[in-house]
Amino acid sequence: MAGPSSSGRYRTPMSRARGMGASHHGVGHFITERVSGIALVPLALWGLFAGLRLAALDFDGAAFWVSIPHNTVLLCLLIVVALIHLKGQVQVVIEDYIPDFTTKTVLVLANLFVCVLGGALGVVAILKVAFTGAF
Amino acid sequence: MTETSGGLPDRPLSPHLQVWRWHITMACSILHRATVFALYVGVLLLAGWAVALASGPDAYACYTGMLGSFLGKLVLFGLTVAVLYNIAYTIRQTVWDAGKGFTPKIADMSGACAIAFAVVGAIVVWVIAAQTGAL
Questions:
Q1: What is the pLDDT of residues A7-61, one digit of tens each?
Q2: C-alpha span between A19 and A15 (Å, rounded)
Q3: Which of A5, A40, A103, B78 has a 20 to 30 A CA-CA distance from B38?
């Protein structure tokens, strides 16, 4: 057999016969992780600053602070971007270490549902406080 | 070409804790994955904080009382370390993506810097918290 090209080295005979190649979705996952990671550098630093401010405030102070538009937006962005980033990171860990198809699929979906539910609850709660002043 | 007895080529494996010799770059990688799970819980705690704030003064006092307890503060300090470590690690990975910083000496040094930044940074944040009445 002639020396295989590096792209063919990890192909099984079946996959070579099918000739389908990779799913071509991997680049999107990679870019999502990198871009969300870079976006989180300033967002997370702001999050620490926000935590310092909020910890020194009581209920009324915190509700007012959250209702200031740039704080509302940055808090929502922090939650959404962090969950997009962490969902991808945790999914990679699951895919790396859980070989069983059913267990892996259940965990990947559970990870997605937890992130969407947590993110939706957080964003709606922040918007409610911002729009109604936490009654 | 590396063929096993089953006719399938060898595939690359993810590193497992049991079979890798301890050195700083692998410790950084494992610490990164551990802090990802910590931050996963941390973002859900942040979403929970927003829900408590939207639920009114009683729920908020209960939630912040929980976060302000000794155990709560311990968790929050750990999360501060995890946030700062992930910020440093993301910058390190972005440099790697540019194809730089892979020599063993530089990789060891950037890993040690990331851990030092996280620990020192967290202490600085909590000293600021103590001085601004956030504790």
A1: 556 677 777 777 666 667 778 888 999 999 999 999 999 999 999 999 999 999 9
A2: 6
A3: A103
Fold of domain A24-132: 3 helical TM bundles of succinate and fumarate reductases (1.20.1300)
Write out pLDDT tens, residues B94-103. Answer: 999 999 999 9
Domain boundaries, chain A: 24-132
CATH of the domain at B65: 1.20.1300.10
Q: Cα–Cα distance between A47 and A75 in angstroms, integer? A: 8
ipTM for the predicted complex: 0.87
Closest CA to A51 of B8, B130, B129, B102: B129
| Whether the predicted model's global pTM rises above the 0.90 cut | no
Number of structural domains found in chain B: 1
Mark out chain B residues that contact chain A at CB-CB < 8 A.
Answer: 1, 7-9, 11-12, 14, 33, 36-37, 39-40, 43-44, 46-48, 50-51, 53-54, 56-57, 60-61, 76, 80, 83-84, 86-87, 90-91, 93-94, 97, 125, 128-129, 132-135
Asked if residue A43 lies in contact with residue A77, where contact means CB atoms within 8 angstroms, the answer is yes
